[in-house]
């Protein structure tokens, strides 16, 4: 699969709309290249993480159509999509612009179970991960990390660590809310000509906000740069949890 083909497919994915014709046409195109399912799914994943937020749901619908219509003749797409769907759904769910979109994402997961695409247990874990929210997830991970250590920590230390984590996550959620609002305004008013320019502009304002709110963090600019580059803030939160664990121990 050549570089021009990948670029063309990526551009085509970014131009998807919510119509069934657009989704089915893209699905047929992807299934036509089932021999190279890993590369095709990789391009789909790149598109989801680099396109505008309103494109996430059509991309998820395309994945659903590919999975439903290919599983009888090959399991290659089922295997390859399983590698990227957890992070893709988490990303789309986190930055969904309405509760209605979040409900539609959950409905797609339910369809995966009803149509026997993936196991009910695996989908339930993914659904619980989405519905738990970032704060509860991070608290659970911190508790689990403490249980897995050989060093005992007193209750007060644990409570202090959790309080610190709550404040941190609350500030992060507030920053994410400001970011979503800024993206909506920029898209509606068409003030910026590309998503890249919008992200760069928002990065400057977010960096200023984080410097004020996170004086105790020495790597706030790195965290935000990571958020904007891949919008995978949870990976960075895992790194911070490691630091918290060291402090508690």
- Return the structural class: mainly alpha
Largest sheet: none
Number of helices: 11
The low-pLDDT segments are 150-156
Strand content: under 5%
Order of helices and strands: HHHHHHHHHHH
Distance between the termini: 50 Å
Helix content: over 70%
Rg value:
20 Å
Mean pLDDT level = 76
Work out the number of β strands. Answer: 0
Which quaternary structure do these chains form? single chain
Task: Describe the structure in your own words.
The chain contains eleven helices and no strands. By secondary structure, the protein is mainly α. The longest helix has 35 residues. The protein is globular, with a radius of gyration of 20 Å. About 3% of the residues have low confidence.
Can I get a quick summary?
The chain has helices at 3-14, 20-32, 37-50, 56-70, 76-94, 99-114, 120-147, 155-189, 195-213, 220-230, 233-248.
Blueprint of the fold:
Blueprint: H1 3-14, H2 20-32, H3 37-50, H4 56-70, H5 76-94, H6 99-114, H7 120-147, H8 155-189, H9 195-213, H10 220-230, H11 233-248
What key attributes describe this structure?
249 residues; mainly alpha; 11 helices; 0% strand
């Amino acid at each position: 699969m050549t570089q021009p083909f990948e670029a063309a497919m990526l551009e085509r994915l970014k131009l998807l709309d919510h119509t069934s014709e657009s989704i089915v046409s893209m699905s047929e195109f992807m299934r036509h290249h089932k021999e190279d399912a890993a590369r095709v799914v990789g391009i789909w994943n790149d598109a989801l993480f680099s396109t505008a937020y309103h494109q996430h749901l059509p991309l998820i619908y395309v994945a659903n159509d590919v999975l439903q219509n290919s599983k009888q003749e090959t399991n290659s797409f089922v295997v390859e999509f399983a590698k990227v769907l957890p992070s893709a759904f988490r990303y789309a769910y986190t930055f969904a612009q309405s509760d209605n979109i979040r409900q539609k994402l959950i409905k797609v997961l339910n369809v995966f179970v009803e149509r026997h695409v993936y196991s009910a247990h695996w989908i339930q874990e993914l659904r619980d991960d989405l519905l738990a929210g970032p704060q509860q997830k991070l608290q659970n991970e911190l508790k689990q990390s403490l249980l897995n250590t050989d060093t005992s920590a007193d209750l007060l230390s644990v409570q202090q660590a959790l309080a610190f984590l709550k404040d941190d996550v609350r500030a992060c959620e507030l920053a994410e809310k400001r970011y979503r609002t800024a993206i909506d305004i920029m898209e509606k008013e068409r003030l910026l000509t590309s998503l890249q320019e919008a992200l760069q502009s928002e990065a400057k304002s977010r960096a200023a906000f984080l410097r004020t709110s996170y004086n105790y963090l020495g790597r706030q600019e790195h965290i935000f740069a990571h958020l904007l580059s891949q919008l995978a803030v949870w990976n960075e939160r895992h790194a911070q949890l490691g630091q918290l664990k060291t402090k508690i121990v």
